[in-house]
Design brief:
Blueprint: E1 9-15, H1 17-20, E2 29-35, H2 39-42, E3 51-54, H3 58-70, E4 82-88, H4 89-97, H5 101-107, E5 114-117, H6 119-126, H7 135-159, H8 182-198, H9 208-226, H10 230-244, H11 249-277, H12 280-289, H13 293-312, H14 322-329, H15 335-355, H16 364-380
Parallel strand pairs: 2-4
Antiparallel strand pairs: 1-2, 1-5, 3-4
């Protein structure tokens, strides 16, 4: 970066728990903002600026300090930790057009949490609703399902922690490396992956969110048709692909064993990292309740925000259900109650997506024009 972010910043807001209304006395302060990079920086050949991450620049800190100190919850986090991320306008608008939840939360942040605003930001904020599209079904639900996957992985480690590092012999492999070189294995795996792709819809010209929806329906049909869960379904598809490629049986069995061994090693490494990096307070909550309740809070919040956007065309960042979300974080729900709630909201999201008045995608020409106007206006000033 070859310029100071401070004079180019057009917006700064609280983010995370401070913006959701779920902050506690021990919550730190997350700030997110938008700047308009100077034209000379935007036109550089060998480096580009997309975002700034780091401490709050001194000038910005002086500007927003009074608002931070006047904020009901953020004031308590100033001496804990203050983190700042400022996106360039081009990247920010593109993320919003893709229905990225983190970007949309900045665009729709409650005005009570704004720390710095400008006329240029007001121009963008006035047009915020044109960035709400049917894509929110996939992005917010996708982020939520990622939380659920983490919850389930961590829960499995809590209930049955791995006792030893996997070794090759556990999977019927010799202690020495495979007879096939790593390059040979990768080439064969690539051929299998390419064959699997031909069975799917990745090459069909359709919006990504539509492709994801069609893929989910196709997978659901196959699960029902074959009466198998997702994991065996993947194995069946792989068996079909290897048969179609006419791979020798010993090669297939060896590759399958290697694949299982690598997956087990990846799980072991993830478990070791989780053990060493866990926040002590969060670890205590996990131990007490049997699952990661902070992830659970984010899971429910994300799903509800996506549902509200589809139903009402609005994104509520400062949560009206903040008290309930804090209770979930504190362990008010059992794991079974949480997963049941997630299933219920997912069905509601799927129904809302069919009935929503939101457009399939943004008006790209209008978004391009808005971004161009903001960048050129900043370049002239």
């Amino acid at each position: 970066m070859t310029f100071h972010v401070e004079p180019q910043t057009i917006f700064l807001t609280l983010a995370g728990s401070q913006a959701h209304g779920t902050a506690t006395q021990g919550s730190d302060v997350d700030l997110r903002g938008v700047c308009v990079a100077p034209l000379q920086s935007r036109l550089r050949l060998f480096s580009s600026f997309e975002q700034y991450e780091g401490p709050l620049e001194a000038g910005l800190e002086r500007t927003i300090r009074p608002r931070l100190e006047a904020h009901a919850t953020a004031v308590h986090g100033l001496n804990i930790k203050v983190e700042c991320v400022v996106f360039d306008i081009a990247k920010f608008i593109k993320l919003c057009a893709e229905a990225n939840p983190n970007a949309l939360e900045i665009l729709f942040a409650d005005e009570a949490d704004w720390m710095l605003e400008t006329r240029a930001w007001r121009r963008l904020h006035t047009n915020r609703h044109q960035f709400l599209t049917k894509k929110v079904q996939q992005t917010f639900l996708g982020y939520a399902m990622a939380q659920l996957k983490k919850i389930k992985s961590h829960r499995s480690w809590l209930l049955a922690p791995p006792t030893k590092k996997p070794n090759r012999e556990d999977f019927g492999l010799s202690a020495a490396q495979s007879a096939l070189s790593g390059d040979d294995q990768n080439r064969i795996e690539q051929s299998i992956a390419e064959k699997l792709r031909t069975y799917g819809i990745d090459d069909i010209d359709m919006p990504k969110h539509a492709r994801v929806a069609v893929h989910e329906r196709m997978e659901g049909f196959m699960r029902d048709f074959l009466a198998v869960p997702s994991q065996p379904l993947d194995a069946i598809a792989r068996t079909v692909a290897t048969h179609a490629l006419r791979l020798p049986a010993d090669v297939v069995s060896g590759l399958t064993a290697e694949k299982k061994y690598r997956a087990a090693m990846k799980q072991w490494d993830s478990y070791q990292a989780w053990q060493s990096q866990r926040n002590p307070r969060r670890a205590e909550l996990e131990q007490r309740h049997g699952y990661d309740t902070k992830h659970a809070m984010h899971l429910v919040r994300l799903m509800r925000m996506g549902l509200e956007a589809l139903q009402h065309g609005e994104l509520l960042v400062r949560r009206p259900d903040a008290a309930e979300l804090r209770a979930i974080r504190d362990g008010a729900m059992s794991f079974d109650e949480l997963t049941a709630l997630a299933r219920t909201i997912q069905v509601e999201i799927e129904t809302a997506a069919r009935l929503t008045k939101l457009p399939d995608d943004v008006d790209r020409e209008a978004v391009e024009a808005l971004a161009y106007e903001m960048m050129m206006t900043a370049a002239r000033e």
